[in-house]
Each structure stands twice: as C-alpha cells, then as structure tokens.
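My current task is to audit a protein record that another person submitted. I have pasted the whole thing underneath without changing anything:
***
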Amino acid sequence: MAHYLSSFFNPASIAVIGASERPGAIGTLAMANFLDSNFGGALYPVNPRHREIQGRQAYARVADIAEPVELAVVATPARTVPGLIRECGQAGIHAVVVLSAGFGEQGEAGVRLERDMLAAARNHRVRIIGPNCMGIMRPRLGVNATFSKNAALPGELALVSQSGALCTAILDWALERRMGFSALVSLGHGVDVGFGEILAFLAMDPATRGILLYVEGVHDARRFMSGLRAAARIKPVVVVKAGRRAPGVRAAMSHTGALVGEDDAFDAALARAGAVRADTIEQLFAAAEILGSGIRVQGERLAVITNGGGPGVMAVDRAADMGVALADFSEPGQHGLRALLPPQAAAGNPVDLLGDADAGRYREALEICLRDPAVDGVLALLTPQAVAEPEATARAVTETAAAQRKPVLACWMGGGRVRDARQWFAEHRLPHFDSPEAAVEGFSYLVRHRRNRQLLFQVPEASSRPREPDLQAAHWIIEAALEEGRGLLSQLESKALLGAFGIPVVQTVEARSASEALLVAQSLGFPVAMKINAPGITHKGEIGGVRLNISNAQAVRSAYVDLHASVARWAPEAEVHGVTVECMHTPRHGRELMVGVLRDPVFGPVISFGAGGAQVEVIQDKAVALPPLNNYLVRQLIQSTRVAPFLAAYRHAAAVDMTAIEDVLLRVSELVCALPQILEMDINPLIADEDGVRAVDARFRLAPRQPSADPYAHMAIVPYPAQLQREITLSDGTLVTLRPIRPEDAEMKQAFVHALSPQSRFFRFMEHLAELSADMLVRFTQIDYDREMALVATTVDEQGEERQIGVSRYVTDPDGLSCEFALAVADDWQGKGIGTRLMKALMEQARSRGLQRIHGEVLTSNVRMLGLMRRLGFSSRRSAEDYTVSLVSRDL
C-alpha cells in the first residue's frame, strides 16, 4: 500500500497553479524547472489568463483537467491559496506544495490566511508542504517543484530543510562537488507536513541511503522524535541546527535553569533518537558520506599511523577535542610494530613510520593495527615527502582495508602529488579527508552514531521497580501548593515529595521561633544546619540565608536572629516563615552532586546531572538526558560528566555507592513521568559516599497542567507502556501474556513469522516471503508507542523460552482520528480465541488514545479472518481497486 506522502515524492501527474511566462515570477520559474528536468509524467499548467504557457496547453482551473492529478504546486498570491486548496480537494488532489509567501510572516492578516488554508485542507483531506517554501525535488524522477535556478543531481542522500535559502546554498555547494540527492524538501513554515512525517516516509524510501536535516526550530516534539527515531533505526540521519549560540535568556530560577540551555535539550533529543549532529555544512556532508558508506565501528579506540610526526600530533589533539579514545596497543601489537619499524621510529600511538616509509611498511603497520584487539579503527596519514609513494601506498591501504571489517580512514595531505591517490580512494569508496582534523572528525561521527544507536534501542518504562511510589501523597503536596496559588514548594514540601518516590533525604523540620528552633535542634542532635524558610528565595546562600555546623543552643539562637537580619537586609520583600533545621550530613569522603529537572519549551522535561555544591554555576559540569530513563541510560548520563571519575575510589576515599546514585536518577525519571506539573527541580547537593546518598537541599517549581487523556502528553518520548501487560487464560487453561512489543523481541518475531505456514504469511503480508528483512524487523519491533501500537501474545514453551503466538498492531492515519490494523496468529494456535483477545485489547488501546475508527485490508480468501471481523462488529466491502481485497472497518 502506497505511503500517504507518495504523491509528493513519486507523482505521475502534476498541476502547476499560477504557471506563467512573466519574467522572474515564481510560477514561471517553477514551470520552467519541470520542463528542464524532463519530468516523465503529465504536466498541467493552470492559469485562467492564458491558453498556453511555455508551450503547454493551460487550464483555467484544476477542475478543468480531465485526467487525475496527484500533486499540485501553487505559486499564486497568498489571498488566493485557501480557495485553491478547496478546489484541489474537490478535484481529488490531496498533495499540494505551496510556494507562495505572505502568510504567518505577514502579521495578523497572514495568520488568518494561514488558518483559512489549513481549515480548507482539513475539510478536503489535503496535505500541504509549505507555505513560503522553496519546494521539493526528486531528481531521479525529474521532479523539480521549486523556483530554484539550480537542479539537484540524482543521488542517495535526502535533504530536508526549514530554510529555502539554505537549501539553495547547499544545492550550489553540492553541485560543485558533484554530490546528488534522492530528495530535497524545503518545509518553509511547515504548518501541515513537518519533519516527523517526512522522516517517516524517507525511512522506508528505497532510493534514500542517508538523511540530512537543517533545523531552525521544532514545532511538534513528539512527532519530530517519532519520525527521527523511525528513520535513524534504519539509515543514518545527520542534523545541523541553527542557533547553537542564540542569546536566549532563561530566568535562572534554579541551578538547573542556570546550567541547561535549549541547545542542550536538542542535543539530548538527537542522541536519544540515534541521530548525529554536525556544526557546519561541510561536516554535514562529511558525516553523511562516512555513515552512508555502511562503515560501522564496534568500539571507539582509534590508531593513527603516519609518515610525519606533525600530522600525527594534529590528529591526536583533535581526537582529544572530539572525545575520541586513542588505542593502547596490546603486547602482541607493540611487539609487531617494534619488529617492523626502524629503531628510531615511535611504536606508540600515533605510529610514526618515518619519512622514508614506503607502501610495504604502511601495509604491514596497518595489518598489525587491524589485527590488534585493542584497536577499533585506523587512520592512515601520509605527507608527500621526497621518498613517499602516494599512489602505491593508497593501493596498499585500500587492499588491506578491504580484507578487514574494522574501518580504515585515509588522509593524504597535499595537492598535485596526492591527487591520483585521492581519486583511487574515491573509486574504491574508502573514506578519505584533506586534513588530520577532518579525518578524526569523520571517525568521531562513527563513534557518535554507535553511541546514539545504543541510546535509541533503549525503551524504558515509566517505572522500573516493583514498589510503587506514593503517588497519592505526591499529588496532595502539589495540589495543596497550587490551590494556594504557590508555584514554589517549601523545603519541607520538596523533601516530602522526594520521599514519596523513595529518594533518601536529610531530615528537615520547620521552626517559627528561636525557641522552637532550639527544641528541634536538640531533638535532631547537634550539629545542625539552619536555613531561612522563605519560599520565594531561590538561592538562600547568596543572601546569607544559610548557617552550617551549629553545635550548641546559644549558636541556634544567634543563627535564628542573624538569618532574619540578613534576609531583611538583602531581600526585604521576602515572605519569611521562620527557619528550617536539619541534621548536618557531612560524610568524610562525601561527593557533592546535583540532579535537576528543567521543562524545555519544545522537548518537555530534561534531566541533568553533574557536580553540585555552592559553586555549581561556576563548575558548569552537567550532562542532560530526556526521560524516561533506564539503568543503561542513567549510566551513560553519569559517565558523560567530569565528576564521574571522582565517584570511583581515589587516594583515601572509598568509591561511592553507584547503585544508590543510579537509583536516585531512576526515581527522578519516574517522578517527572508521573507529575506533569513539575517545571523545575533541583537536588543540590546530593551527597554520595560509600554508604549511599542523601538529598540535602531540594526545590521544586510547579505550574497547573490541563487534563489530558495522554498521561505523558508533557513528554517527547512515550515510555514503554508496561501497564498494558496482562495475563489471560485460554479455555483449555493455557496461560498467555499480552503485552506491547519491545525491540529485543526481534529474534522472537522472526521465529514467529518463519513458523507461519506459507498461506498464513501470505494472508498477513499479501506477498510471498519466507522471513522478514532486517529493515522490516526494525520497523515491526521498534515502535514509538504514540502513533502506533503492537501487542504480542506470548507463552512459555517446554524449554522455558518465551514464544510469540500472535500479534496485533495499529498505525495511526494522517488524520489523527483513525488507524489501520493488522493481525496474525500462529497456525497451531488459531481457533483458541487469541485473535479475538488481541483485537479487543488493541481496540481498547486505540480508543483510549482518542482514535475514533479502525480499519484494515483482508484478502477475500481469508475466510476465518473475515468471520472474526464480523463477530467483532466490523463492516466489510470489496475494494474498488482490487477485488481480491475486502476493506473492513468499525467505529471505536
């Protein structure tokens, strides 16, 4: 079944509305581009003022075109576009590219036009790319629906950009380098079709080997992440984002707010989606080229061999900048290199082969490095010294690399003397670069792609522990504060909220007088800490609102007076509710850490971790991640910080309890998943030692949230819906588990499909296949749980292994109101009610997501399936396009 965006990318007929012969007009350029690109389909210029345009018969309206039209390109004034969208819909055209400007960027009048255009599109089931865009290209089909004066060459990279101007620049840059594209899409305002849907199409497009994105902003984080994750599971995605250093100002209401910027959230989102980020257009293509080549790394340790010390040092320096690890050769590797090299040569990393190195020495050094288990990739550098053999060495490197699975990159520095060698590398598809720095960056893309794909495959649950948090207590704390009109929780409330999720805290008690503070201190035991209790003051230490190590009764009374005097001086407008008194928690070898949460305006909650304490903003140590988290993601988050090495044992300090730190981060993830009212949270410091962790200070900022049928509407990534798992008992007493599918089910899924009879496989896939391809396995087992759902029925076989015996799935349609389903049951389990249970569970989930209708295609010869559909209340009719197919549907 064709994808609903196929009409944009594979149209057989196109109408150019607003086609013209007026010099410089957009309609003139668009029409000329189609003619120049030799589009092989039907082309219809539409303009009521002309009978003929650029040698083609013109039509007054799209309704006058007697033949079906798949794509319309609109190049008329903005005021005419809503009406034209209606006409397209009425004429059966459901894909429209709007090149016209004059919408949202033109103030309130333009906004109204944009609203009218979208309303017309919704009413007539029309999808729009644009407005105010450069258009789209599909070079291999001769589709150039743009007003650009440059035409893209055919290739295997797709480019999707929010900037038409940048599309033009990239196109010009690529033409000079003879780089081609499978598709080029300028989204413009992206008011309808956006990144997410385009990415989902390109993920399954056989003509596309890699995807390049230029992003200025994300409008729909959930759909963006869904499409990005779907694409990155199958092919490399490289992203350039504008505004890395945008001077956006965030009110530093918390330590987290001062540390984490919007670009950090975008980086975390890309990493979690399995995409790779580049900083420049050159890096964008370099990353796409090396990732699109199919080269992959199994580890991250790079060896460098060179015939010049300087270039080797440059490579090592850049490796340090990029976080690329240099390989420490194993003992056999070192022995082999020492035996090969002259006495004065360095056998370390980089390996200096000296200036007289010939092709044979390069070959042997490369073979030794590639055989070494401590090496994951090799960079071969060459400078054209007097006795160097650039071409012969290039052949030796290429031949040696071809016999190995580890990646080999080349950098032949210079000009004329190395030109033929570079041509050799290009012809044999060995990645090569002009400078050591660029070559190391190329290897870093492989490393980042590997790391990010590991993050992509993580599917955490909202909660990962058997003991549930006290959600009722958490909601009471939050609702009480919001009902009082407070957006900030007190220290006592903040710690109570952490306690509801099982996060250890230092005991804290409020006191409203010096005498009360003394009684509390004596009850807790000296020494104690005292802090001003003023919810409106964020950083109490900055105004003298904290006293530590108070060891006696007189010091308590003095501290109480001093705290109030300090606040009266530095924050006279603050509302003071006395003080808080807490036990001093100062383990001898404790490390001060910080855990924070910030609500990003695009991607929702972002969790940060790093070094804590009073100097947190100065230290600036942080790593960020998008929830939900699991143990693997938490460990990656911790290891990404500068404080990570200090958590291990050093000098006289024992290693901290890493399990306790990981548990806190998991509990924070659980907290932000469950409580959408949280805008910000700080735990600073979180003191960790060998005995565990304690939250010494905590702070929350809240905001009311609108009720939603989706409990995770505030999140960019939907957690694994573990709550949908259920156990059922068949009529014969067999226990069966129904649960959402997981990525690790791929092997079980393949076995299920392989075990189906040829007839059952044909009934399910409507084609003859013996097993699923690698891409299909990824597509079926790695879903986003937002726009789609797959429920598997499993049982445990005699060997104690889980076995799939059935599956039902739906994918939401573009209208967001209906979905298409599929169902399959193992042959030896049919007739036992599994299909009925799977379909009912699937429909229940679709209904809970707000979907109103479910439909599917069933082969007319599949009598048992059609009978099940009738029993479940589905209506059935023969397809007008294929009489062997019945269309079944029902309201939800």
Observations:
- The first helix runs from residue 6 to 9.
- The two ends are 23 Å apart (CA to CA).
- Confidence is low (pLDDT under 50) at residues 246-253.
